[in-house]
Design brief:
With about 280 residues, the chain is α+β, with helices and mostly antiparallel strands. The protein folds into 2 domains: about 140 residues, no CATH class; about 100 residues, Serine Threonine Protein Phosphatase 5, Tetratricopeptide repeat, CATH 1.25.40.10. It contains 7 helices and 9 strands. Strands 1-2-3-6-7-8-9-4-5 form a 9-stranded antiparallel sheet, with no helix packed on it. The termini are far apart.
Amino acid sequence: MRTTILVLGLSALTATAQKLPQPSPSAIWSQSLGLTEISADYSRPSAKGRIIFGELVPYGELWRTGANRATIVRFSTEVEINRIPVAAGSYSLLTIPGKTEWTVIFNRDTTLAGTDNYDRAKDVLRTTVKSKPCAFTETFTFEMTDLSSTAAHLKLQWAETSVSVPVKVEVRKRAQQNIEKAIAEQPGDWRVYRNAANYYHNEGIQFPKAVEYIDRSIELKSDSWYSHWLRAQLLYKIKKTAEAKKAADKAIELGEAQAAKDGSTFGYKAVMEGEMKGWK
């Protein structure tokens, strides 16, 4: 009878199992950097009145950098972390916190629940960065700051301590490859050429080549006011001011015609005219 009661009791517990909130909830974070996707899968412990670094997380000891399991970071392309190349892939992120500097480790073993089975031979990167005091942060936070098209900082912050690791990615070579591939695959698509010209314009590079691309785009589609405006800006960059002004006038003409057709006002005209005032 006791055995039967025990089995029934266990069955009742299983049947009424509940999903309850985690003390350190999981989070997924992602960020585009140039043509690279960077993401992290981690858990977020909270301070809850405890002294974190130096007590809960001892100095000089390996930390899984979060809770529940080691933080996993993924890179869609090769990156450079603190000037050290790291191949595309998924890695466990572990750290050794110190009073003034931390050791940051990327390890190829992504199955680590904690640090017990950590194997230093599987490290792909081990680097040292300075830690900084910060405004109190209750919950462990992982983010990317100081973004540009090619660089950023991978930032860890908790309690009153912040650590940033510089990250760089190669963009221009991949962008050029993408441009060439798109043109080869879609030679009759006006947008492919305009996108390429716009990229060069935004990056401040290869203006003569950008003019070639925007001219080809306009050959394929001549009624886009933005294409003519982009052409005007590029011509000005290569010191063909008279041609640039003509292209800008054409852009305004097309923009106003399109707005009139839509029953609206061409609002971008003032911006264009304002920029043209500085063209000498």
